[in-house]
Amino acid sequence: MNIGDAARASGVSAKMIRYYEQIGLIPPAARTASGYRNYSDNDIHILRFVRRARDLGFSVAGISELLGLWRNRSRQSADVKRIVQAHIAELRQKIEDLQQMADTLQVLADCCAGDNRPNCPILADLETVNGKAPKT
Amino acid sequence: MNIGDAARASGVSAKMIRYYEQIGLIPPAARTASGYRNYSDNDIHILRFVRRARDLGFSVAGISELLGLWRNRSRQSADVKRIVQAHIAELRQKIEDLQQMADTLQVLADCCAGDNRPNCPILADLETVNGKAPKT
DNA sequence: CTTGACCTTCCAGCGTTGGGAAGCCCTACC
DNA sequence: GGTAGGGCTTCCCAACGCTGGAAGGTCAAG
């Protein structure tokens, strides 16, 4: 299987497959006599694992940890769970931050006439620090 | 006012101030005879605007647009509102994506015993494509 | 043999921030 | 006046996770 076929089979682009190999996330692929990368079914399996983990928002470092546990038959599911729960916590934190931004902006947008006049409470807010009047 | 003072007064690090100047987000600062950047109260005002906009998640490109409107006294508040609402939509989209990830992971984590045995539904899921069984 | 699609490597960039090196300037203190 | 220390200057590098392109080799079909 060429890298293009592996990309189509796994959902990971050829560029990214090479990148993942380069940074050591996945093992170096076998090569044909002419230097083409050659992928086995097991390699595709690994690539799919990586793809799925990325879709779930894991960083490359996180995927590396998960791959290690996946390969390790004497792993403890508690280790996997710990990684996943830490990641969930990060996601929830990001969600909270973004939600806070969106809420603030929504309030400002609701206060803005949105017409052809220059007066705008949004810009007025942006002049301030943390949404409060500046000391000056 | 030196760049350090400006940084403390605006909440934007000196490093970032230089960077914003370099990429043209803010105008080049005045200089003293010896080459030090010199900031006026108005410059601080601009920096605070930038800081607040970043806190609300705007990209540098977005801030550039907002700054343009801020400076333009004949602006129309509708233009500001449009930019802000587009940004709110982006934020909500990101929130939704992250929420989807977190929900999926939470379900998996809840199914995982988290003990010293290797069996783990999380890893089992990661082997699949989009959470469904692979074609193979 | 030619064409076109594929593969290879390497280099550079995106956006935002932090870190550090080498060297100049300013203030304070002796 | 000399010196120590902090602050300033510019420049380069690193991070994250890719993405694009250039230059060139390989393979299969016509």
What would you note in describing this structure?
The structure is a homodimer of 136-residue chains. With 136 residues, chain A is mainly alpha-helical. Chain A folds into two domains: 1-56, Orthogonal Bundle (Multidrug-efflux Transporter Regulator, Chain: A, Domain 2), CATH 1.10.1660; 76-136. Helices cover 62% and strands 3% of the residues of chain A. Chain A is built from six helices and two strands; from the N terminus they run ααββαααα. Chain A has helices at 3-10, 14-22, 41-55, 60-71, 77-111, 121-126; strands at residues 30-31, 37-38. Chain A has a two-stranded antiparallel ribbon. In chain A, a hairpin with a 5-residue loop joins strand 1 (30-31) and strand 2. Chain A is elongated, with a radius of gyration of 24 Å. The first copy, chain A, starts with a helix and ends in a 10-residue tail after the last helix. The model of chain A is unreliable at 132-136 (pLDDT under 50). Chains A and B meet through helix 3, helix 4, helix 5 and helix 6 of A and helix 3, helix 4, helix 5 and helix 6 of B. Chain B binds a DNA duplex (30 and 30 nucleotides) through residues 2-4, 13-16, 18-19, 23, 32, 34-37, 54, 59-61. Chains A, B: Residues 1-69 form the HTH merR-type domain. Chains A, B: InterPro entries: CueR, DNA-bd_dom_put_sf, MerR-type_HTH_dom, MerR_fam, Tscrpt_reg_MerR_DNA-bd. Chains A, B: Keywords: Coiled coil, Cytoplasm, DNA-binding, Transcription, Transcription regulation. Chains A, B: It comes from Halomonas dongshanensis. Chains A, B: It is found in: Cytoplasm.
